[in-house]
Amino acid sequence: METKQYILSPKEAYEAAQKWRVVKRSVDARQRELKVHLTVLTDDQGKPIAKDAPIPLYEPPVFQDVHHAKRSVVIVGCGPAGLFAALTLLEHGIKPIIYERGKEVSERKKDIALLNRNEGLNPESNYCFGEGGAGTFSDGKLFSRSKKRGNMQRVMELFHYFGASDTVLYEAHAHIGSDKLPGIIKRMRECIIEHGGEIHFETCVTSLKEVRHPIILAIGHSAHDTYRMLAAEGVKMETKGFAMGVRIEHPQSLINKLMYHLSAKRSVSETVRTLSGEAGLIDYVGNASYSMVTQVDGRGVYSFCMCPGGHIVPAGSSTDSCVVNGMSASHRNSPYANSGMVVQINPEDIPGNDPLKGLLYQEALEQLAFQGSAVAPAQRMKDFVEGKASRDLPSCSYLPGIVSSRLDEWLPAHIGKRLQQGFRDFDRKYPGFLTNEAVIVGVESRSSSAVRIIRDSESLESISTPGLYPCGEGAGYAGGITSSALDGINAALKIAERQ
Ligand SMILES: Cc1cc2nc3c(=O)[nH]c(=O)nc-3n(C[C@H](O)[C@H](O)[C@H](O)COP(=O)(O)OP(=O)(O)OC[C@H]3O[C@@H](n4cnc5c(N)ncnc54)[C@H](O)[C@@H]3O)c2cc1C
């Protein structure tokens, strides 16, 4: 099959997508007029193929029955890396046995509801731990900056196979949403169990010494106790660069104005009305997002995990710290736009040789931000940059609540000062971005792993512990849902190759 690319207005693109089989789509907001790049499937004569033509979207996966399989593999952690590793093992007739410290997704939801009401954090069941890992109640953005890691399209196909919408197959910045992810994760679990795999919830692995199978270690980057166990058991690790900062939240209407180049006179709703005249177009173009980066004093300052129409959430896993992150539902229709704003930290910035020193550094900042409960410290953006206390705070999506705090004073200077300069830089590019209508919330400390569990680049096996396959975000080789899932697939394939 051939493809053909079109650059269309949102209205034209919307209409084309109702008729034709779209294989790639991206929204281009760089020019004053919003454009949609649409690639459609065509026949030999270059004629677009109808949307509902009887052509399969992809080759469906074939999972084998492993109830009586000769080979089995232990997987620690049921996040994207662990789950996709398990599905890949099933495809190769190997039995996955998953141990997950948190609860299955419907039980986990209850703990998250309590946390959102500021009624306490369960250290074993929260936004980080539980079925589906940190990916379950995440934004569910499915893109990876690295195209070299493997077959990214296969990850999208598997998400689609388990219930994600068609858009994940063609959207340049595909997104599932935290309302849809739990159902998809549940169907993956049902598939694994139905084919003979095992999943043991509420089972924290506290030693690897007794395990006889090959082990896929997919623990994510928040299980600091597990890293300490690995260090005690002689698993070789090293500090890696990471990033920390804050989450920022603007009114979504303001971000739409800035990113879609709308004048003060033309509101977003007016523009969308002019563009559309049709129901469905708002969903089609979506609320605007942004990606910003600058350099301040030799370090990158950048936006991270931007969530249009989303919520800020309490994403810590211990009862004496404050960590925030962001998520959004599939429609991305809250009135808020949030994003991490982080500063690059290099291993040499932290004194000492302990491979876990980055974790200690993260923990120290998270404890500094802690207000005695899930309530998070916050400051208006301009006040933060100008070094003033915020007498009041704007409304904010963060459900446990925010309290006015001098982040400009207590954030370590190499983070705080750089963020202040970074915000000025971003405002030069998008005048109006630096505003007291926006609020910064502390702290965004888990944007990436501060540790790497060292593995052989060919075999993907730990260099110190034969039979151990560290993978995913916690091993320091991935960041995000897609790359972690791919890393899990790659680890499983390596094991499958070794008869
Ligand atoms: C709120 C939020 C929003 C996010 N939004 C996005 C997004 O939009 N797009 C994106 O790409 N990424 C997003 N991320 C990041 C993404 O979720 C992670 O990169 C991804 O989940 C990492 O996958 P993983 O499988 O490596 O680890 P995890 O998903 O962290 O899973 C690890 C699992 O291992 C379990 N575990 C840990 N230690 C043990 C042990 N000793 N014994 C048993 N089980 C253990 C944990 O309970 C956890 O369930 C978000 C994260 C958060 C918190």
Number of separate strands? 19
Query: CATH class of the largest domain, anyone?
Result: Alpha Beta
Rounded to the nearest angstrom, the distance between the terminal CA atoms is: 37 Å
Bound ligands: flavin-adenine dinucleotide
CATH topology of the largest domain: FAD/NAD(P)-binding domain
Please estimate the helix content.
25-40%
Q: CATH-wise, what's the superfamily of the largest domain?
A: FAD/NAD(P)-binding domain
What's the story with the biggest beta sheet? 7 strands, mixed
Radius of gyration: 23 Å
Q: Would you tell me the structural class of the helices and strands?
A: alpha/beta
Which spans have pLDDT < 50 for at least 5 consecutive residues? 273-281
| Main sheet strand line-up | 10-11-14-9-17-15-16
Number of domains: 3
- Beta-strand portion reads 15-25%
Q: Helical stretch count?
A: 15
Instruction: Give the overall silhouette.
Output: globular
Protein model, in words:
This protein has 499 residues and is α/β, with parallel strands linked by helices. It has 15 helices and 19 strands. The protein folds into 3 domains: 2-42; 72-238 and 453-497, FAD/NAD(P)-binding domain (3-Layer(bba) Sandwich), CATH 3.50.50; 242-444, no CATH class. The strands form 5 sheets. A 7-stranded mixed beta sheet has the order 10-11-14-9-17-15-16. A 5-stranded parallel beta sheet has the order 6-5-4-7-19, with helices on one face. Strands 1-3-2 form a 3-stranded antiparallel beta sheet. It starts with a strand and ends with a helix. Flavin-adenine dinucleotide is lined by residues 76-82, 99-102, 127-130, 133-135, 138-141, 204-205, 218-220, 223, 226, 305, 313, 315, 325, 327, 472-474, 479-482, 484.
